[in-house]
Amino acid sequence: AQPIECSDFDFFSEETAANFGASCWHCPWCFSYGKDAVIPGFVEKWSIKKMHDVEKAPSERKYTACYHGIDSDSLAIYKYANTTARNDLQLLRTLPNVSIGYRFNKIIDYFERIGDCHFCFAPKGLGYW
Q1: What is the DSSP letter of 95?
Q2: Contacts of 122 (CB under 8 A, 6+ apart)
Q3: What is the spatial distance between Cα 126 and Cα 12, in angstroms, rounded to a whole number?
Q4: DSSP assignment, residue 24?
Q5: Which of 41, 76, 79, 129 is the most exposed place for a label (fewest CB within 10 A)?
Q6: How far apart are CA 87 and CA 101, in angstroms?
Q7: Using CA atoms, how far apart are residues 36 and 39, in angstroms rounded to an integer?
Q8: Tens-binned pLDDT, residue by residue, of the chain (129 aa)
């Protein structure tokens, strides 16, 4: 992942996605491996508890790998955020023993699905996951 630098841009919505692309760009010069660190997001206590409640034992899990999320076909900002891996993951949806698709309407349904997976793909995105 590369950092994004923006000028004259401070709010994103679907309506302003084109402005984001015009005002923001990847800047490899912004990140120095010798001194900068990427701090991962967090998962709050409520979600951890819910995921733990629906997690299956490894011997009972149905899927080898899972991914359910949004890509640039669904959310315009991903066109500008270099999230091509999200689009590419959708191409794997027909493989056996995987659960790959778009996001669930209810978060608890998502938690139940990932609790039934051995591995979860976690591509770059915009959320706190």
Answers
A1: S
A2: 129
A3: 11
A4: E
A5: 41
A6: 10
A7: 10
A8: 566 677 665 555 656 666 666 666 777 777 777 777 766 667 788 888 999 999 999 999 999 999 998 877 777 777 766 677 888 898 999 999 999 998 898 989 999 999 999 999 888 776 544
Find the length of the chain.
Answer: 129
Geometric angle at alpha carbon 123, from 119 and 124, rounded to 5°:
150
Q: How far is CA 102 from CA 55, 75, 97, 111, 126, in A?
A: 20, 11, 17, 14, 15
φ/ψ (deg, to 5) at 73: -75, -25
pTM greater than 0.90 (yes/no):
no
Three-state DSSP at 119 gives: strand
> Strand, helix or coil at 21?
helix
| 115 alpha carbon, distance to own chain's centre | 17
Distance CA 129, CA 122 (A): 8
Rounded to the nearest 10°, the torsion over CA 70, 20, 80, 122 is -40
Q: Tokens standing for 118?
A: 């051995």
